[in-house]
Amino acid sequence: MLSAMLRVQVLMSTYNGVRFLSEQLESIYAQRGVEVELLVRDDGSTDNTVDMLRRGQEQGRLRWYTGQNLKPARSFLHLLKNADDGVDLYAFSDQDDVWDEDKLLVASNTIGGEPKPALYFCQTRLVNEQLNDLPQIPISPRLTYGEALVYQFVGGCTMVFNKALRDIVNCYTPEYLPMHDVWIYDIALAVGAKVVFDAVPHIRYRQHSDNAIGQTASVSSQWGERLRRLRQHEHIRWRTAQELLKGYSSLMSQENRELTVAIVGYRTSWLKKLSLLFSRRLRPASKTIALTSRLAILLNLF
Fold first, then answer.
1. What is the share, in percent, of the chain residues with pLDDT greater than 90?
2. How does pLDDT run across 181-230, given as a tens digit for each residue?
3. Distances (CA, A) of 259 to 7, 83, 273, 275, 294
4. For residues 183 and 236, is the Cβ–Cβ distance under 8 A?
5. CA 62 to CA 96: how far, in whole Å?
6. For residue 12, which of 68, 53, 54, 69 has the smallest C-alpha distance?
7. 280, 142 in Cβ contact below 8 A?
8. Dihedral of the CA atoms 247, 12, 55, 30 (nearest 10)?
9. Per-residue model confidence as pLDDT tens digits over 102-125
10. Which of 134, 227, 228, 260 is most buried by its number of CB atoms within 10 A?
11. Is there a contact between 35 and 65 (Cβ–Cβ < 8 Å)?
12. How do strand 203-206 and strand 125-127 relate by DSSP bridges?
């Protein structure tokens, strides 16, 4: 337990979020055991979201700014570049969830004061629009770089990280960006950051029709999404590996660099392809993800 309260800057991107925004703001203001500073970037809302943000700023409860519509991933990276340097930790926030009052305190007690790059994230508790519990999807990540390259499961709304990691993330802006949370999680493991997963949820993760990215308890829906990505030849993992190599090769261990190089080159090298197909490093905790990732490698769709 840390003796002094840490300063945590919460970074929120809003877009036409007036429906649920008030509840989320109140849950952030109610955080205990830490000093909370809230910085909001509005991504071009056309509803009354900016009026709510303006009132919050007038009351001294948050700071906000606006800009062109960048979509969530780029909007959050913009926030990260404009975040304050003098805080201890940073946390991402969606506009429509509700946080438990100890969410930031638990994260602060876990990675606060860590001198090396550090990232904390936790399990989500899925709820519907009325905040009633839904069937849950527990995860048991291995927290390895290889798993991160094939299994995109981390929720940005649960992530808290320190300035050392924030500075590393900010030193390179990728041309291809899947989602900000996946990108930062990949970077953290690529450069050997301390990464901690908390199996206890500290957030009610609201599922509704307006979610930019949501979760579902439907196995068929999950498989449908995987197959859709294969059919569309998005090459998400391959393109992400290219960006990681461009931006962070010098910060990777030799083992991580070699794995990244193999992914970047697998489409033109049978040797690299075979090394990935039989690599233990790429095995995620999920057997279904392991199967689809190897299929994607075999078909040059990784």
1. 81
2. 999 999 999 999 999 999 999 999 999 866 555 554 444 455 455 556 55
3. 37, 32, 11, 9, 15
4. no
5. 17
6. 53
7. no
8. -130
9. 999 999 999 999 999 999 999 999
10. 260
11. no
12. parallel
